[in-house]
User: Which sequence fits this backbone?
DNA sequence: CCCAGAGTCAACACAGTGTCGAAAAAAGTC
DNA sequence: GACTTTTTTCGACACTGTGTTGACTCTGGG
């Protein structure tokens, strides 16, 4: 019986493409996408400017590739675990938000670029979809807690409450990651979530 | 005594400059600054592309002029009235948020452009300053209510609470102005503010 | 009438993007 | 190893948009 077929390692091109993506992510941490030239990306990966177009149609197309690289992490780690029922609400919300903060630490630059109004529609749709899933999960959680009487009924509707809490979380994480300490960030967000959902007026 | 000096009406140049700013604000409502060409702006004001540079050094410089046009409204109407003590907290917060929503209706496009990471540093500083004032006013309000025992003491600290509530409000208004009705938007935001500040855990 | 400065614009230089086709490098086949 | 095929590279080009310059016109006051 012959030895198992030697798996073709990643070709030279695959490695160059990866190098481009890594260069891009590195540069995105220092300045917005619009200010990153193709030349700069290409030199970062050791190829000429026009070779860049062998790998990506444009800078925007590269952003999409960058997003899909990040997408797996994001969907499995954040979306699927978002508000998974745990012992008590406080812990559930706290760990979910903690997870979101960590995800931002790792991929914040890419997500920020995708949120930019100049980003291609696909990128913005990706972000909108992500947001939509988180809102839906939150809405469910609120509805469940209202059904059991643990949380007071609306108004405000579960949907608008969920929209704003998720929005607040995204906004706070992306704008105050540096200014406020991570612990204070998570604790304050958790407290607001808890009060907004469970406190009667 | 001589007749009062005839006030020089706005010169031709002043009118052209105004026309440029109006064209810019109109176009900003439909697409981001980066996608607006100088040519487009110039034609909108009835001058040639190169004449644009007689009025502004660059597209970014024009954004600053646009911002300062909006600044007066913004500072007097929102910053100065933000959380002015009224009958009860609910009303105070509600009317302040309503005011912010209205301001966004009128000048949202310009403010959105100024928030963009590609905007010139001055524009971003302007927004940061605006944000800082609102946070400071909110923080004061929270501290006052804590001092009288109307609101429970922290943690969370008044500062981080204020930061996140203001952030949530900005984010919600700018991202959900269309999707949620204005009334629901104001009511839900108000409810969250009230609970976050006054509810004990 | 003449002048000053306000306003205008065609023509230019330049930087960045994206395309093309020819050539070099790598991989596969006998 | 010589061959074909596919992958990868890049120089040269066309194009678009920006910002600058210098000469021109217009306007109003003395």
Assistant:
């Amino acid at each position: 019986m012959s030895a198992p077929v030697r798996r073709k390692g990643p070709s030279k091109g695959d490695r160059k493409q990866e190098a481009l993506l890594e260069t891009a992510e590195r540069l995105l941490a220092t300045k917005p996408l619009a200010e990153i030239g193709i030349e700069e990306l290409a030199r970062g990966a050791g190829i000429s400017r026009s070779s860049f177009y062998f790998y990506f149609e444009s800078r925007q197309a590269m952003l999409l590739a960058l997003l899909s690289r990040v997408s797996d992490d994001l969907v499995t780690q954040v979306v699927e675990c978002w508000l998974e029922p745990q012992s008590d609400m406080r812990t559930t919300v706290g760990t979910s938000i903690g997870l979101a903060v960590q995800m931002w630490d790792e991929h914040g630059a890419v997500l920020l670029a995708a949120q930019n109004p100049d980003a291609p529609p696909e990128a913005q749709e990706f972000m909108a979809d992500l947001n939509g899933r988180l809102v839906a999960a939150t809405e469910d959680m609120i509805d469940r807690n209202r059904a059991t009487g643990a949380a007071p009924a609306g108004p405000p509707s579960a949907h608008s409450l969920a929209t704003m809490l998720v929005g607040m979380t995204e906004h706070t994480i992306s704008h105050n990651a540096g200014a406020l300490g991570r612990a204070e960030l998570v604790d304050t967000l958790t407290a607001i979530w808890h009060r907004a959902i469970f406190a009667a007026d």
In short: Residues 11-13, 16, 47-51, 54 of chain A lie near DNA strand D (CB under 10 Å from a C1'). Chain A has eight helices and no strands. Chain A touches chain B through 36 residues (CB under 8 Å). Chain A has two domains: 10-56, 67-198.
